[in-house]
């Protein structure tokens, strides 16, 4: 967001509208809910009249994405849609270094090189994520990303990139790139203009926050824990039994994916706790009990470990 601040973008009102404190921007461990992030982006669009709210190479007036996508919704296949979207994006957004390399089996989308892209990593993340989600929506099939390459050093939150792309990126690459199977290019575009208008109306939710990746062991474990009953603690043995593997084998599979049962469970508890605190509809005592902690003090200690701040930090002001 540094470039946006340099250009005079005032985030204060948007942050207040989304019930996000300015102090959270300086906390690497801080988290916001999907609803807060959605409201923040919508407020920034309104305040800046820029669909990239000041972080792109040039302002992108609101309605640009709508006009770009209306210009490709009636094409026959994804190959044509991608080429047209890249052409439109170069004209409308200033990303002149977006290009596609199509091979017999693998296609690679490049973003860069350009000096501002190395400064504003968020720009690259947004462009790659939006392109991927929109293309998947166009053909009604989740496009599986085989690899993501990013031209910067792995940041502190690197372990969260699989939630964005479905894969762990390779960092310090020569250029930002996203790789997927060329078979998707011949898939027909199945969406209508009316569906596109509705898709845009609910943005950015479906573009930035919907994760529908092919199931991995960790994603399946996550779903099972998330679907537990509120008063029913789930153990690694419970999950292993449902997956028809041993607990030891499940731990090994998760380790190969760079995570563990405990990490997944704590991430879910953290996100559930933050969502409740932002809503403000539970006391800390009730929330602690619902999440399975023996006492509120244990919950407070865990919450500070997860986020670096006490639960009260996430309470809505006033």
Q: Tell me the structural class.
A: alpha+beta
DSSP strand tally:
5
Uncertain regions spanning at least 5 consecutive residues: 114-119
The main β sheet shows up as:
5 strands, mixed
Q: Please, how many helices? A: 16
- Number of domain modules: 2
Side-by-side strand order of the widest sheet: 1-2-5-3-4
Q: Termini distance?
A: 27 Å
**What is the overall silhouette?**
globular
Strand content: 5-15%
Mean pLDDT, as a whole number? 81
- Which oligomerization state do the chains in this entry correspond to? single chain
Helical content band:
40-55%
Order of helices and strands: HHHHHEEHHEHEEHHHHHHHH
SSE topology sketch:
Elements: H1 2-6, H2 12-17, H3 34-48, H4 64-70, H5 78-93, E1 98-102, E2 106-111, H6 115-119, H7 121-139, E3 145-150, H8 161-165, E4 170-171, E5 176-181, H9 193-201, H10 205-209, H11 217-226, H12 236-243, H13 247-256, H14 261-279, H15 284-290, H16 296-307
Parallel strand pairs: 3-4
Antiparallel strand pairs: 1-2, 2-5, 3-5
Helix pairs in contact: 4-9, 11-14, 12-13, 15-16
Task: Give a summary of the structure in a few sentences.
This protein is of the alpha+beta class and 318 residues long.
Description of the structure:
- The protein is built from 16 helices and 5 strands.
- By secondary structure, the chain is an alpha+beta fold.
- The chain folds into 2 domains: 134 residues, no CATH class; 98 residues, Arc Repressor Mutant, subunit A, CATH 1.10.10.60.
- It has a 5-stranded mixed beta sheet with strand order 1-2-5-3-4, covered by helices on one side.
- Helix 12 crosses helix 13.
């Amino acid at each position: 967001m540094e470039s946006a601040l340099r250009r005079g973008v005032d985030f204060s009102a948007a942050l207040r509208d989304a019930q996000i404190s300015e102090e959270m921007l300086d906390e690497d461990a801080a988290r916001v809910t999907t609803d807060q992030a959605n409201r923040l982006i919508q407020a920034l669009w309104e305040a800046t009249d820029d669909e990239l709210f000041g972080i792109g190479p040039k302002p992108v007036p609101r309605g640009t994405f709508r006009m770009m996508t209306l210009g490709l919704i009636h094409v026959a296949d994804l190959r044509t849609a991608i080429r047209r979207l890249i052409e439109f994006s170069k004209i409308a957004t200033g990303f002149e270094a977006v290009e596609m390399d199509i091979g017999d089996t693998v296609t690679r989308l490049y973003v860069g090189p350009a000096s501002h892209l190395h400064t504003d990593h968020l720009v690259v993340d947004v462009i790659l994520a939006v392109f991927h989600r929109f293309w998947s929506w166009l053909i009604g099939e989740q496009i599986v990303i085989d690899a993501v390459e990013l031209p910067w050093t792995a940041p502190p939150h690197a372990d969260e990139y699989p939630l964005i792309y479905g894969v762990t990126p390779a960092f310090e690459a020569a250029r930002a790139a996203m790789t997927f199977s060329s078979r998707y290019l011949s898939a027909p575009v199945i969406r209508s203009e009316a569906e596109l208008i509705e898709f845009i109306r609910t943005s950015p939710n479906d573009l930035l926050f919907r994760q529908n990746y092919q199931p991995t062991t960790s994603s399946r474990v996550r779903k099972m824990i998330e679907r537990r009953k509120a008063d029913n603690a789930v153990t690694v043995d419970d999950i292993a039994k449902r997956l028809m593997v041993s607990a030891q084998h499940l731990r090994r599979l998760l380790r190969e994916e760079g995570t563990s049962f405990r990490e997944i469970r704590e991430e879910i508890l953290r996100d559930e706790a933050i969502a409740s605190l932002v809503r403000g509809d539970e006391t800390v005592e009730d929330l602690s009990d619902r999440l399975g902690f023996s006492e509120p003090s244990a919950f407070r200690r865990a919450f500070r470990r997860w986020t670096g701040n006490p639960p009260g930090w996430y309470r809505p002001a006033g």
